[in-house]
Specification:
- The protein is α+β, with helices and mostly antiparallel strands.
- It has 16 helices and 39 strands.
- The strands form 7 sheets. The chain has a 16-stranded antiparallel β-barrel.
- Strand 21 and strand 22 form a beta hairpin.
- Helix 1 runs antiparallel to helix 3 and helix 1 packs parallel to helix 12.
- The longest helix is centred in the middle third of the chain and has 17 residues.
- The relative contact order is 0.09.
């Protein structure tokens, strides 16, 4: 077994160098979701007191903390590890698209709900709101070197066991062997919240349903002295049942009373941490900090009881256990030598795609970032429901070692291991991926957008995307994109828009226009890199005007159905760290278009040329305050400028009501401006805590019919103050603004992502 060469030190964990005969100490950690972070604080004090740990058992979060402790994370490294995790990502099924294309990132920030479905095949990861694929990925990364099938008693630095519940037989399932990441994942699979783990004919969920405090298992494993930590709070009353998660938590807590009293009776020192005010899902940085501190403070209050155990154990104050699990290297950043790749349950085409996209044939090392990029690409580009990347230590044959000049040195944690074999394992391929988005605002009221991604069974990955928007502005579109092994993604699309747009003049509604727009676009050059996208293509637009209602002046303009052909080049760069509330990075977008009605001219004249762009960058001052200057504008040239493509400004987003619309602080609706328009905006963003943000925007703009007259007119000025709360459904907030064009304040309420 490969893992046998990974041990540091002697056969038995944490024995003193003088082989003092003493009793074995078992540490038992209960379940409790996020409240289990308190276990880390208790472990800190046990280490400080010099208490040896010979056996660890745990349930749910106790199995995660205990399992990681057993393979080499001491209390301080556990403390650091849980604080750096993005738990809002880890405990969801969101994809990490930081290294994927901009179109994929935009999609993630348009829909609040996404799920994949495999038609005709049973989804073995169903059965919970959260499938837990990000948790499984994190466990694989943290358990590097221990992801193979192991004997938890013989092959880990500290013997370990954890508990799950088989909901088929209602039996307790004790993990003493197997794959450690899978065992931890099964032990914390809260029913209905997380999907169960299926192994053979077993369907495993949270072990707390049968044994939330497994002191009996520690005793069976040979523990003579048991130190136990529980994090359950006071019993809940009816008033505490305020939501789905609180009800699920109560069902689990009620069932978690199994065996607790009997196991407490065999415990030598029981530490009950006060977790009042926190629940199973309290994974915010402030909550984690408080829970760890409460665990440490409780243990320090029991310092005398802890040190008194030394006599029972058979040691004195001079005893110092040999720590065979020193602070592990930073597994999230360290690199491992790659000896080869193995692909499981993947087509030859998928294997070839990954090898070429990530240059795997030339890759000689791997870290956590590359692991995550590989699994994300397997799920996003190749449409697999689940994807797993495991690193298995491997030793080369002597002849190969000599060729590569590898010596018998201790390499990181893995004594005698020359490197790792990377195993990429895929689940079922998705038949379709479904997206849903919802938004509400005080201008258009409610809108819903639905999307379907349908992969085609082709040698080169090809996806079809279908989108439908329901609301005052309706849209139905279809797009076919080819995902070749290099970075370009050619695509062809067709979209129908049914627009119902109110146009304002100096703050007053001037007219309403209703029209249908049919749009087809061919983009043979669609170059996608990490932060960069360049598109070159040709587009057809047909405008069918249904009605125009408004002022007498506006109705003098006759609108006739018309079609256009345009050549377009778009450049998009985005390195911002957050789509809606960035603190670092920059965003740059630019577009050139040449508009005609016969591929060459427009109404017999030279076609209309459009230059548009925006450039925003973020500067963070301190920890919470960010300044974001932005320069943007749109310049139109030509003898003929169709009104439907004229410049418009208003609201907070580019292209909100019509594609050429530009935002302007203080203007809440859409207003037409002259053909030459440039503006600057300065936004001050204060992260006031949690998911809350305060924004202040100042904007100034210039407009003119001709570029040389740009600064002849009065400068447009606007100001806006806003508050937003960033939720899983998108930003929720309100804005109050004023501009010298509208000359009156406006109030705007928004709920949800912009689309």
């Amino acid at each position: 077994m490969t893992i046998a060469v990974l041990m540091i030190g002697a056969a038995n964990a944490q024995t003193d160098s003088t082989a003092v005969k003493r009793k074995k100490v078992g540490v038992v950690l209960s379940g409790g979701g996020a409240k289990g972070m308190a276990h880390i604080g208790v472990l800190k004090v046990l280490e400080k007191a010099g208490i040896p740990v010979d056996i660890v058992t745990g349930t749910s979060m106790g199995s995660i903390i205990g399992g990681l402790y057993a393979i080499g994370y001491n209390a301080n490294s556990l403390d650091s590890m849980v604080r750096v995790q993005d738990w809002s990502y880890v405990i969801t099924d969101k994809e990490d698209l930081r290294n994927q294309s901009l179109s994929d990132r935009k999609k993630q920030n348009t829909y609040f709900f996404t799920t994949g479905m495999t038609i005709g095949k049973r989804d073995m990861n169903a059965g919970g709101i959260i499938k837990g694929k990000n948790l499984a990925e994190l466990f694989n990364q943290l358990c590097v070197g221990f992801t193979d099938s192991l004997d938890f008693t013989r092959d880990l630095p500290i013997p370990f066991a954890c508990v799950a519940t088989d909901i088929i037989t209602n039996d307790e399932v004790d993990f003493h062997s197997g794959r450690l990441p899978q065992a931890m994942r099964a032990s914390m699979a809260i029913p209905a919240a997380f999907s169960p783990v299926r192994t053979g004919d077993k369907v495993l969920v949270d072990g707390g349903l049968k044994n939330n405090y497994p002191a009996d298992i520690a005793r069976e494993m040979g523990a003579d002295v048991i130190i136990g930590v529980t994090v359950q709070g006071a019993p809940k009353v009816a008033e505490d049942m305020g939501g789905t998660m609180s009800i699920i938590s109560q069902i689990v807590d009620v069932n978690c009373k199994n065996k607790v009293e009997e196991n407490l009776a065999i415990t030598d020192l029981h530490l009950q941490v006060d977790t009042k005010g926190y629940g199973s899902a309290s994974f915010s940085p402030a909550a984690i900090d408080t829970l760890i501190r409460r665990g440490e403070e409780l243990a320090m209050r029991h310092w005398d009881d802890i040190t008194a155990l030394k006599q029972l154990i058979g040691i004195d104050d001079s005893f110092r256990p040999v720590i065979l699990h020193p602070l592990r290297p930073k597994v999230m950043t360290e690199k491992h030598r790659v000896l080869g790749f193995t692909f499981e349950n993947m087509t030859p085409q998928a294997e070839r795609f990954l090898r070429q996209k990530f240059h795997l044939d030339r890759t000689d090392s791997i870290d956590a970032n590359l692991e995550q990029e590989l699994t994300t690409s397997m799920r996003v580009d190749l449409f697999y429901q689940t994807a797993e990347c495991r690193l298995v230590p491997e030793k080369l044959e002597a002849s190969v070692r000599k060729v590569h000049g590898i010596r018998d040195e201790v390499d990181s944690l893995w004594t005698h291991a020359d490197g790792v074999r990377v195993i990429l394992s895929a689940g079922n391929r998705k038949s379709v991926q479904f997206h849903a988005g919802f938004r509400f605002d005080t201008e258009e009221y409610a809108a819903v957008q639905l999307g379907l991604d349908i992969p085609l069974k082709t040698a080169i990955p090809v996806s079809t995307e279908i989108t439908a928007r329901l609301g005052k502005r309706m849209k139905v579109g279809a797009e076919l994109t080819v995902h070749p092994r290099f970075f370009t993604r050619p695509k062809i699309s067709y979209t129908f828009y049914r627009n119902d747009v109110d146009v304002y003049n100096n703050g007053d509604r001037d007219y309403n226009i209703r029209y249908n727009q049919f749009q087809g676009e061919l983009t043979p050059f669609n170059f996608d890199l990490r932060h960069f996208n360049l598109q070159l293509g040709v587009r057809w637009d047909y405008m069918h005007y249904r009605s125009k209602l408004g002022s007498e002046t506006s109705n003098q303009v006759t609108l006739e159905n018309e079609h256009f052909f345009s050549y377009r080049a778009r450049l998009n760069y985005n390195s911002e760290d957050n789509w809606n509330f960035p603190k670092r990075g920059a965003r740059f977008r630019s577009e050139f278009a040449y508009l005609t009605d016969n591929f060459a001219k427009l109404d017999g004249e030279t076609g209309m040329m459009e230059y548009s762009g925006d450039w925003r960058w973020s500067f963070t001052i301190g920890e919470r305050f960010t300044l974001q200057p932005m320069l943007y504008g749109r310049l139109l040239f030509g003898d003929v400028v169709p009104p439907v493509f004229g410049n418009t400004i208003g609201t907070d987003w580019f292209g909100h009501y019509v594609e050429q619309q530009m935002p302007f602080a203080g203007i809440g609706n859409m207003e037409y401006v002259d053909h030459q328009f440039v503006a600057v905006q300065l936004q001050a963003q204060e992260h006031i805590g949690g998911n809350s943000y305060m924004l202040l925007r100042l904007a100034g703009g210039q407009q003119a019919d001709k570029l040389k007259n740009l600064f002849d007119q009065t400068t447009l000025f606007g100001v806006q103050a806003a508050y937003f709360y960033n939720t899983m459904f998108g930003p929720v907030g309100a804005a109050l603004g004023y501009s010298n064009r509208t000359k009156e304040p406006y109030f705007y309420l928004n709920l949800g992502y912009e689309f």
